[in-house]
Amino acid sequence: MAIGKSVPMLDSVARVTGTVPYASNLKLPDMLVGKVFRSSVPHARTIKLDVSAAEQLPGVVAIVTAADFAGDDTPNLHFGSTIQDQPVVAGDRIRFIGEPVALIAAESVVIADQAMDLIELEYEEIPAIFDAEEALLPGAPVLHEAFPDNLLGHSKLRRGDIEAGFAAADEIFEEVFSSPVAQQASLETQVAAARWKDGKLTVWTGSQSPYTVRRVLSAIFDLDVEDVRVIVPPLGGGFGGKGNIRTQPMAAALAWKVGDRPVKLVMTRAEEFLTVTKHAAKIIVKSGVKLDGTFTARKVTIYWNAGAYASSSAHLVPAGMLRALGPYRIPAGHVDSYGIYTNLPIAAAYRGAMSSQGVFAHESHMDTIAHRLGIDPLELRIKNLLRTDDIFATGERLHDIHFVECLEAAADGLGWHEPLQRENGTVKKRGRGVAVMMKNTIANSSSECRIKLDAEGRVTLYTSTVETGQGGHTAMAQIAAEALGVPIEALTVIGPDTAETPPDAQTASSRSTHMMGNAVLNGAASLRQHLAEAAAPILEWSPEDLSVADGYVFVTTQPQERIPYAEVLGRKNIAALTATGKYWTNEGKLDPETGQGISTPDWHQGAGACEVEVDTQTGKVTVLRYHSASFAGRVVNPTLAGLQNDGNVIFGLGASLLEEVAIDGGQITNPNLSDYMLPSFLDIPVELKNVSLEAEGSTFQGIGEMTLPPVAPAIANAIYDAVGARIRDLPLTAEKVLRVIHEQGEADDEQ
Amino acid sequence: MKIEGSFTLRAPVSAVWDYLLNIEEMSQCIPGVNTLETIDANTYRGKLEVKIGPIKAAFGGTVTLLEVEPPHRIVAAIEADDRRNASQVKATFISVLNPIADGTEVTYAIDANVRGRLAQFGQAVAQSTAKKMAGAFGSCMQKKLDAGEAE
Amino acid sequence: MNYELLQPDSLSGAMEALAQHGDEAKVLAGGTAVVLMLQQKLIAPTVLVSIGRVPDLDHIRTEPDGLHIGPLTILRDMERSSVIQRRFPLLAQACGEVGNVRIRNQATLGGNLAEADYASDPPTALLALGAQVTATSVRGARTIPLEDFLVGFYTTDLEPDELITDIFIPASTPGSRMTYLKYKSRSSEDRPCTGVAAIAAFGAKTCTDLRVAVGAACEVPQRLPAVESLARGQALTDELIGEIAAGYADSIETLEDIRGSARYRTQMIRVHVYRALEELRNGHR
């Protein structure tokens, strides 16, 4: 049995010896260096772009500008996975500070840097808008003529009679929450290398979405998808930032202009902040509640700041809508989720995308209600949490629901009902908080794999699941090993390489273990069938009478009559047996006016509970203990699952307490990891524990994000529990906490 | 980025005003200004050099007087860029003269957008530099005003 | 990044290089600051003078009047030096709080002082200790008290042709207690929001001498002798400690950055000066 075992990551030795072949380290013969010349203004009309001096600098091989896209036989300037609003390089319009304006291919970084200083850009600045809500106001500067109100998407959820619900409430609660722009901050920055040969394009890139990259590149260059090959080595982290399409069009355009030499483009850390960010959000939550803690209605309005181009926001805004109400029984629920263009860098998925912001809002809000009603926050949640067979706000009947178990596992781990010593005679006070989350996954998508068994008994799994460092390839190998009855050592995992590995939607939204895992199961079943068919003549039984397991094909009723896989192939003179496996879901087609329908194949579920200590003189918050739980269905690799749960908590500490991209007039002022603050190992709670919940008969569920969104509200709730300070805007900085403590002190003095 | 401050001068508001509006002469009191030319009645072009430790910035740009309310309020727009540092400054500058017991209080409020490489240098440095420059400007101006009085 | 890298193997060679290139040259020691500034193109020297090959610049030498530290001494060695731990524990503390161990294994004390980054720990500790910097050039050597050496943001009293060749710490009154309190408003490996270095000597029942330096919250680390003198000959009561903490908080013009507003910095000075003095009084260190 390979499933359920903590086998080491397949590439663990390479990881600790520094030999993982990251795309950042890729060297191709005759490879040129790519560099990006960027705008320094947030919104402008381009008057003149002169690259002639830069082009003449020795060592500069090519410079790409929008003019290269202007003819009939040229590539298409604009691209996008959903809305084609983004230019490869800015043309007559610049929409954010740091937007690519010209691309340089040169023999060295030094030469490319010198060339940058020779580029002359003349522009006429026009008014810019940075706040999402203000961008919706009449008269606000318009970014895209096709979207005159700056609204790229508006997702609506309408369930029940909302006004009657509020009218029936004993108490109405309304709060406003906000989350700042943040950055995914993968250790490895964005990278893409491209090479053209015989009219065909090959791209090596750190991407979570190789097939999206292939589709979009083929559209830019008017190629058949087969003429674009996308190869993805292991990633040094993705966290959503490497989903969709990012730097690949620029690398491909540079190589196209160069012609016969490959070009590699690696983002600097500062450029990383200009390439992709997390959506800032303002969320208004209004709830109607009975005094006994039952809900009558909830209305949520979300303004997502999408930045200058739609990118993945077009499908993330509806996801944000689905997650906004929280996993509660609420008879009337309305959500308006607005995706809004502003003159900021592009926002896209960030681990726990569109959940973290919403969960911070509804879980902080739950505690506000609990405290006002005098109900224990854990009890209020358990009383209202959705159960299996409940009807969700989309009208869909829920299956495999374990919110209560997740929350109780986290709370029990922390010892929620145990007494807490709140003070110890010093200026420090302690408190506890809990939070729970729900998220849909990518619906209406498919995953496909190919499995090859050779005459030596070796198994090769071809999969487009991206190894982001999460152990995805190891999990797939474990599933294949078990389903084929071979030891894990017999497995080799190849991919993604669109020329070799079958299509997969993307490695995102914690979908891979479930989707690709089931595709592997299906592929293995098919391969077992092939084996039975090949062995039938040798064993002289019909295939239906044969079983395939543990390395042998055997007669089901007479297991001693058996033959090893390798021998089957050897005796039949078959070099290799190959099977494909596919898994897909059709959900996700919701009514655009009401959001009614079946939204997702599965709901992702997680919870957290923590104990914090607040220094009442500085406002500094220390998370002392954190317990998390996620619903995993069936755990493939307990160690890797635990690392996802714990990794989420550590990652979440950053967004909760530290991370905020500082922006002044559209200019990012902290695009480095000294000023943009990530948690360090010293910030990890002394007691950090997790549980991956399983259920009888359940399949693999995604666990890549579930324990992350509860972190911020659990901490915010614990701060409130400790010192009575409710912070509604992330991050929960010491200064904000101290300010609220002081304000309350003043308010108390007045009473 | 918003920068606010004030300094006082031992001279009546009218004298301070007259001096301030003599832009070319006044500019000689701004530390680091090495050229200033008049484009038209309300527009001036100049160069400013600032040094913060090892970092040298050399800005060239224009100052446009947007509102002139004699003798107490002036609003100007500043646009300048530093090509070597690939940086720009875009700012509005408001200065108000208030009569006080023994002279004039000059308040200033700058709302500046710093873009490019120098932007990540930080607010603390920019604010302090602006305040130091204002202080130096004030004492230079006091000297000039005193000298003018003596003449 | 177009510069010439010079690697003199003698002090005189280094000084001649600096004398020749002056303002166009930049000294490279550990490189933790200079390389970042080069990469960000904030500086563009035509010559980099690496002093790594100059001998005898990484000494930690005890003399009767105090301790001499070479500018190339890495912060990790400062942190781990038994003589510093014994005689000037707050300096070992402050150096041990910088960045993380990877940084401390590379960054040098001389480089730290020459960069004059306000958001740093060692300068505050050295100011409380009354440190003096020796700057040497082909024109000769001069000794500069640290309060005169640190001039402003990233600005020192060093002339372009001068190199720090020694950092001297005078011996403290025997039996002095000292501490460095670094307050990080964000992650555990962040730069300081405020840093407080305090040294107190005690008689039978009273404080005979007090030195308090506050840094990171202001442009350069500051001591307030008038406030320090409140403690002389007095018992460090809660009231007196509170008065001194308030004196520092009220007098220091604080700055605003991503680690806290000016107002918050003022509050943190008050809290941490109080805590530092409380710690010294209670004799925990």
Shape of chain A: globular
Q: How many structural domains can be distinguished in the coordinates of chain A?
A: 3
The stretches of 5 or more residues of chain C where confidence is low (pLDDT under 50) are none
- Sequence of strands across the biggest β-sheet of chain C: 4-5-10-6-7
What is the gyration radius of chain A calculated from CA atoms?
A: 27 Å
Radius of gyration of chain C, in angstroms, nearest whole number = 19 Å
How far apart lie the N and C ends of chain A? 67 Å
Which band does the percent of strand residues of chain C land in?
15-25%
Q: Any overview of this molecule?
A:
The complex is a heterotrimer of chains A (751), B (151) and C (285). Chain A is an alpha+beta fold and 751 residues long. Chain A folds into three domains: 13-126 and 184-275, Aldehyde Oxidoreductase, domain 3 (Alpha-Beta Complex); 277-442 and 590-750, Aldehyde Oxidoreductase, domain 4 (2-Layer Sandwich); 445-584, Aldehyde Oxidoreductase, domain 4, CATH 3.30.365. Chain A contains 18 helices and 32 strands. In chain A, the strands form nine sheets. Chain A has a seven-stranded mixed β-sheet with strand order 3-7-1-14-11-12-13, with helices on both faces. Chain A has a five-stranded mixed β-sheet with strand order 9-18-17-16-10. Chain A has a four-stranded mixed β-sheet with strand order 20-28-29-32, sandwiched between helices. In chain A, helix 16 (638-658) packs across helix 17 (711-723). Chain A is globular and about 90 Å long. Chain A starts with 11 loop residues before the first helix and ends with a helix. With 151 residues, chain B is an alpha+beta fold. Chain B has a single domain (2-150), classed as Alpha-D-Glucose-1,6-Bisphosphate, Chain A, domain 4 (2-Layer Sandwich). In chain B, strand 6 (87-100) and strand 7 form a beta hairpin. The mean pLDDT of chain B is 88. Chain C is α+β, with helices and mostly antiparallel strands. Chain C folds into three domains: 4-50, Uridine Diphospho-n-acetylenolpyruvylglucosamine Reductase, domain 2, CATH 3.30.43; 60-170, Uridine Diphospho-n-acetylenolpyruvylglucosamine Reductase, domain 3; 177-282, Enolase-like, domain 1. Chain C contains twelve helices and 14 strands. Chain C has helices at 11-21, 34-39, 75-80, 82-87, 89-96, 101-104, 109-115, 122-128, 146-149, 225-228, 238-251, 262-282, and strands spanning 4-6, 25-28, 47-50, 60-63, 66-69, 132-137, 140-145, 150-152, 155-156, 163-170, 177-183, 194-202, 207-215, 222-223. In chain C, the strands form four sheets. In chain C, strands 4-5-10-6-7 form a five-stranded antiparallel β-sheet. Chain C has a four-stranded antiparallel β-sheet with strand order 11-12-13-14, sandwiched between helices. In chain C, helix 5 runs antiparallel to helix 8 (122-128) and helix 11 packs antiparallel against helix 12. Chain C is globular. Chain C starts with a strand and ends with a helix. The mean pLDDT of chain C is 95. At the A-C interface, helix 3 and helix 18 of A face helix 12 of C.
